[in-house]
């Protein structure tokens, strides 16, 4: 597999049909490479001589696929990163059949992964452009051409562009945005890279209506990050030049601008993005966006020389006629204007697919051994295209197919077995090139060795720790303090405490209290402040005025004692600004207690459920994001900052404590588990840990706790912070279910806590929601690490802190104001576009013109 060409960071530009091992730089300084490293099969062709001068160089060659029903390009991606993918199809009479001018024009389907993306049907001969934005679900993204019997599939170019995570917040792992239209108003040139760093195509739309007036400026426009519309695109605009139709809600002297209409009677829903930047600031320009049924956004004022965007949730017009109108308000001194707009529809996929780790592993095997066969697209699905020799099963539940058998016989393979095979963790049978299963024994022996190591190493570690402890006891200096702690009782012989195997408690940095001292410091446990994992928590104050929280074991049981010991042992060996600090403990006869730093702000659960309702502390979104970011940093430290990872086991809002200035720290380590070796991948446990609503669904199936178990629980915490609702809501079910259903509409307001009153940056909110949905995916291996979660939350906080103005006027750079209603039908002017999108693109490159046909209602 070839690597992306250098020249533009992360760009992959494939000229399909280019000679093998060839590359060139086009007029836009974009480096194109051949497609031989990204696809198997197909034939190279050139368009006929009559078409050579009509198209740019990448579109004068193509690859056709006369054999095989499905042929796929496999593109390298970074898991969970956001991309723009564009394919261009120019038939150009390459086969001499002039099919594009006939009814029998080539027609076939285009797939992104397992989602049917579009039908390609180049009837006009000018070519077609298909573009989508998606989040990578694995290290490879397959895009496939599927023959439907309507002609030979072909493709001219494939372009992959990385997008910033903050862009187009509606794009998530299970839903992509497909471009329907993108236009630059009043422009006379086609714009792409280098003006647009993300290489979006901006087609020019010149004045096509006598009620439009062209506007332009040479001043630079400040652009935002959510949509990053290029300054050159925003430097032109159209404005209304005639009064609005009678009956408009605004004054009779106001004017209206009919932005765009199109007709589609299918069930498809659309999202519209309107981009604005005013060129003057001396007079008020204010307008409403509305359908016939009523207003959508009102009193909107574009920012002066700064980008602002209004966009809609997904909607479908009754009757299939779409109209968008901008109407000046009675106060406005200037007519409404529009600089650019984009229209997208949603492409979703929630069905079965190959487990991403298996996909990455089998792709690595394919590349290492140069396996061809039919190994393209998704390895397991659909069944008619499943890879030869690959057997899959839904053994782990959820929506993931696992590779359980691999037959490479008759593949002429030789040499050492690659370690890539061990990454197929569900593999049960492996047939080598000789057709037998002897190689399975090798894999099994490796697993046996791993099991042996995982048993022996912990035993050795325990022995070393015991020896080290006794050496430390012998060598430690005498305590010169006036305080002399009582001896720790032997839990094996104490009649008051059940017998349980424990390690000696490390007390070098933690004070050991007597029970009488704790009674004194807590005023006889008079101030109850909460309930912990194994007992009640009381407020206390030491002799030096240090405030403490004292957690007392409520009953003597092996389970309770085990939680007590787990917490004290973990707290004494972890030190981080976002983890609560242990002050000391009490262990005498029938009294067990922990004393740790007092967190005056309570816990996150109270913050969301009680304090916000009472107005006791601020409700701003930035505070919420900062709290979960700090909690994420604490959890990340447990997973990555310790010598051996610690699994918290009970991550929930109750265990995120808030101190001075609402600084967040993670507490309650009673259910924590520590790995005993660096090679350990999970901890098996019989008794379910955690709290209902937060427990990883995969734990119920496997009985295994992993770092991703904490990640799932933290994802639920994120959704609580977004919605202000508990994990399980009567009548709606689990929070992950109804949030997923709600965000599918593209309207973040459906899930955001109403108490925030829309006072948040939409991109920041989307970032947290998308991160939460990644954390709570059903399959553990598909979840991000806490390190990745921390990075995403830092991005979200930066977006929120940079968002100075939350009002609909969008006075800050890059604001995005969401339209909260649905557009309805209206009898407006229709605009039909001459030729195809691609033909307009090439025409605009050569002549600087693009004709726009106009038709009456």
TrEMBL record:
Any one Gene Ontology BP term: defense response to oomycetes
A GO MF label: ATP binding
Database matches in Pfam families: Malectin_like, PK_Tyr_Ser-Thr
Transmembrane segments: 449-472
Sorted UniProt keywords: ATP-binding, Cell membrane, Glycoprotein, Kinase, Membrane, Nucleotide-binding, Receptor, Serine/threonine-protein kinase, Signal, Transferase, Transmembrane, Transmembrane helix
Topology within the bilayer: Single-pass type I membrane protein
UniProt-annotated location(s): Cell membrane
Binding positions for ATP per the UniProt entry: 551
InterPro entries named among the record's database cross-references: Kinase-like_dom_sf, LRR_dom_sf, Malectin-like_Carb-bd_dom, Prot_kinase_dom, Protein_kinase_ATP_BS, Ser-Thr/Tyr_kinase_cat_dom, Ser/Thr_kinase_AS
Domain Protein kinase: 523-795
GO cellular component: plasma membrane
Family: In the C-terminal section; belongs to the protein kinase superfamily. Ser/Thr protein kinase family. In the N-terminal section; belongs to the leguminous lectin family.
Protein name, as recorded: Protein kinase domain-containing protein
